[in-house]
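ok trying again, last paste got cut off:
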Amino acid sequence: MASSSKPKMIYDVFLSFRGTDLRKNFLGHLHKALNHNGIYTFLDSEELRKGDQITPALMKAIEESRIGIIVFSEDYASSPWCLEELTKIMECKEQRDLVVFPVFYKVEPKEVRTPRGSYNEAMVKHDSKFGKDSEKVKRWKKTLFDAGCLSGWHLNDGTTKVCNAKYKIISVCIPHKAITLCFRYLISELIQKIVKEISNHLDRKTLHIAKHPVGIYSQVVKLKSKLNLESNDGVLMVGLWGQGGIGKTSLAKALYNATFRQFEGSCFLAKVRETSKGSRGLVTLQEILLQKILLLHQRLEIFDVDEGINIIQHRLGCKKVLLILDDVDDLYQLNALVGEGKWFGNGSRIVITTRDKHLLTCHGIDQDHVCEVQALNGNEAHELLSKHAFLIHQKLNIRTDLVRDVLNYGKGLPLALEVLGSFLCARREYEWQSTLDRLSRIPNATINDVLKISYDGLEEDWKEIFLHIACFFKGKNCDYVKKVLDSCDLEATMGFNILTEKSLIRIESKILEMHDLIQLMGMDIKRSRLWLYDDVCNVLQHNKGNRAIKAIVLEPPELKRLSIHPKTFTKMRRLRLLIMHNVHNSFQGPMFLPNEVRWIEWSGCGFWNPHFSFGSKKLVGLDMSNCNTTGVVKQFKDFQQLTYIKLSNCESLVCTPNLSCAPNLKESKLWNCKNLVKAHESIAYHDKLQVLHLKWCPELCVFPNVLESKNLQDLNLSVCPKFEMFPDIPHEGLKKLSILQTAIKELLASIENLVSLEVMHLHIFTNPIHIPPNIYKLQKLQWLRSSFRPIVFPKLQDLSDPRMKIGLPNLNSLSLMNCNMFKVEFLQDLSCFPLLKGLYLSGKNITCLPASISKRDHLSELGLSGCHQLQEIPQLPPFLKSLHANECKSLQTNGHLTSIDQWVCRGLTMVDTASINKDSSCCIRLPRGEMPKWFQPIEEGSVSFMTSKELYDKFLGLVFCVVRGNKGNGCSLEFQAHFNGRSQGTCSKSHYKLGPSGSMLNYFPPSDLWKVVHFGQIDGSYAQFSLILSGGDVKELGFRIICKQLEDDLKVTLRDNKLIDLAFLYEVGHDTMDSEVKSLNMHEANSIKIGLLKNLQESSHMHENRPIKFDLDCGPSAYTGDKIGFTPNHEIFFSGGFPRNPNKKFKLILGE
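nice, full thing came through this time. structure:
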């Protein structure tokens, strides 16, 4: 893997120069002095310098050097060879951390930068030879400017003249000898300075990173960009944060090695947490810091921390330093060692590694400079394990499934892979299996000890929350877990934040996640928790409960039967959680529970008759399923703290409990209670009730006419077929309303009272249902869905309220699928739903859409699948990203759909001018069609190509087309990147549903497919990319890469090296197109597309925050014009000859 290895350094110094005279004088003396001081220097021979192209041997020598010295003499720029050599040196400076020093030998730095004098004359000759607009010459000029800006040494006539004054007596007697003596003195003095500086750089030793530093150097490239090393403005702090064993220290060492020579002083301060615990811990660290940065032979003696702070500020206040503090765990360590960063000179960089993200925030490091260290990806993990577990000479073959199981155990954690790989090295298969069996029961001590450091640093409440998650709640919804933990008097919100900051948990899409090894570490601690079946069975059946037990959670995958002792819970005085799912209790008598229990979930238990002791009950949450609830309902009056209740599949329940007995109740959910007939009247007046769900209750028919609950926010009355009367809701707090499959005949006009409503689901049995016009008064409604029943949607004009100028102004999504609608006039009015982003009309009988839909600028998704009567789709909205028109059997061919290139063009312009959009892909799916001829067909379902960074930077997007056969209903596409022939895994994989004979076109910007591509991580100059289609019956597959116009010399390089078939590339900016496309009247390269995209590419940085509006009244296929221009008001206009309107203009308006 390219990212796993660093190029081997052979030479200390590479000398770049021009001229035989220079070689025999200054350069010869410098080379001799460097070698005399043991500095291994590469100096090429004249025989290697033939022609204009730099040889591979010199390229390799530059790559294998630590330092490059460029001697800029008067005729240096006249040599294309030298300029190519310089370009390679500066490239290695950026990509391989080559340290570069210029020597300006009898030339001024400004002559090199500008260029001026002999350098200007040389560049004029190169322009004449290679062409004024040659990319090669442009590259040379930029390289000269960059190199001319570097700090180095300067020897010129001005200096000689100053020295002539010093030696004026000698000049009078022997003028020529005086000048010669002076210049030799200057050269000698300069060479001494150069040798001393180079020696200092080489004497500052690099750090050992790891035996096998897999996956590190790719991350170093990203971190260097965070450090902004080119800037000397102020002091910058960067934090590296991550769980134990993730590789923070190794990454910090690699970053140190890659950058420390760019600073006047540097220090990697290791083991800050451990060292600071001693009696003189922080003082010791201060002494080490000063000794390393100042290169002292002995430590300065510091008596206390405050004195150390003053010395650091005094000695390092004007020094540009690199300081890395490794494994920091407390703010006082940062305060004693770096303060706010102002203690050091401008341009200094401070890097801090820690397990605690909050520590970095408290110290004032902004979030843009806090970097989470990620686990290794699959390929990197496999490589690291292999390097440790399999020796080169080892001939043992280990089963793939065993290797996979070890990788799955390590989950990309470098520490685990290194420890296990080393332990399993040279062991046989049965030993691998035995090790895995043991690890499933007992964590590895070395790994566990490292991970447990984070746990040991927690306060007691946060430890409790961590152990609950590790033992019970990994993979659970964080909102649910918060309710459970809050019921136990644990501050879950703060606990989640702290555990996340400590890298012990993470929350992804509201799901609590935790690394498997951290979970095993927590389970190993246990501390009064039961979750394993054998442990729970032993305690509950044999009455072995005790005061230490705090929580019991048993959720077996299959139904388990237990005979629980009736008094086993009474001994558990500290029991807080009792969660039993898929457990059947065969004991038929009463079950006595402690009053301290806070949360009960029990399902599948058959007869269950819980009893509590006398006195106040602290129960907060109750969730029962498939249980007899008679006894629980009778005890409801004792549940004063009850906040959440959920009863499901409880056939004994006929009437909902009297909620007035539970004054703190917030949520009441009754699901699938088949015999529930009546909702108790107390639900109508409960002041704290926020959520009321009565779902899948087929007999429910008695319900209060008015809901007076002031805090009710979520009402769900779904799949209650006997529920006929929608209640009046006078209060404004309701945010979510679901009425699916009920017998309600109409919505009351009082629905206008629900001014806070954000989400509404309607699915009513009556045929049809008329939505009242006053629905337009719901100003906060964002999501409206109705499906599978006929519906009549009102127009805004039906509302007799002249004050209402905009209908549903915040509606984002409107879904009216399978609602048997023939007309959609309500969509014609643009004052309705002005912010609509998603419109889903699938399965309707509509024949056409209103033309005004093209003016809905916010609409990004349009779903029309299954609209069998739809004949025409008008002009598409300007920023539509997704059109699904599958199975629209009556859809007629029309220009803007069949001229797909124009639709793709609009997608490209949207990407270019709205770069802040994260998702810039476009997709269109049609019921049938042939692949347009401008696509390049892909044989055997895959395509692969090589590209250089120069070419990749010109990619604007990739368009592919799939046409299905008559079988199947979907296909999968994978986008992969390879570096040096090794896969980096599947970077993007998507599955698409597409009916028989259907066609699909997709546009992707390269970053959507392959994310960020770091060419600096690879050993060669090219990376390999591939596109793979799999699954289903595919009739045709094609693709095309849309790119900026290529220079002729780049085309020659691509063609000569056979990197990519040029037919794959469609260049934006060409004035010609191939004859095949012309003959098919595709007009792929017409001037609209050319001018629009070319100019947008050049000016997108100026307009990235401005909306784009299109005025394309004339069909693109009719356009034959060739003029383009800009107006002062940021309008781009196109004019030319049109068959039907020769004076017609198109314009693109870039609004302010």
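cool. Residues 1-5, 46-52, 158-176, 1070-1152 have pLDDT under 50 and may be disordered. The radius of gyration is 37 Å.
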